[in-house]
């Protein structure tokens, strides 16, 4: 009996890691397995399909043209002031960005469930290089509007991608693994 519970717990742990379940869903799965093992499974213990988030596919979460802040939009009252920009520029660690032969390189570390930088600022026309280092977990770095994506990497691995920031505006970058994006593993690229 104890071996059976141990094996079910081991399997549950694997499912949670692979699917990226939230803590609430993890608890619900644990309760369901425990109740089932004790012969007490009820309809309330079953997981509703609506309570499970999607798999992070572009179908529901991809940005459309309305999500992009164009140059013309920067002239309204919602635009950043110079004071705001200096504060935001402080959020980019000088050690994480270098310029080499006009390539702006940003070193980002990834861990569950965040990037080391939530904002990257470049000029339109800049050649951008993202160096992603996985400090914890399985991750990638993706930005749809520039068709740029690193390889999917495990803890201790590094991957990089280069692209030209040829569109001005505000663009979301994210980790496309499982539900990492929905769990907040996102950032913004500002192209001025």
From TrEMBL:
Q: Where is the composition biased (Acidic residues)?
A: 61-76, 85-99
Quick one: signal sequence residues? 1-19
Region (Disordered) spans which residues?
Answer: 40-99
| Domain EfeO-type cupredoxin-like residues, every copy | 99-191
- Molecular function terms, GO-annotated: metal ion binding
What is this protein's record name?
A: EfeO-type cupredoxin-like domain-containing protein
Transferase among the record's keywords?
no
Identify the species of origin. Answer: Candidatus Buchananbacteria bacterium RIFCSPHIGHO2_01_FULL_39_8
> What InterPro entries does the entry give?
Cu_oxidase_CS (IPR033138), Cupredoxin (IPR008972), EfeO_Cupredoxin (IPR028096)
Keyword Transmembrane helix present in the record's keywords: the answer is: no
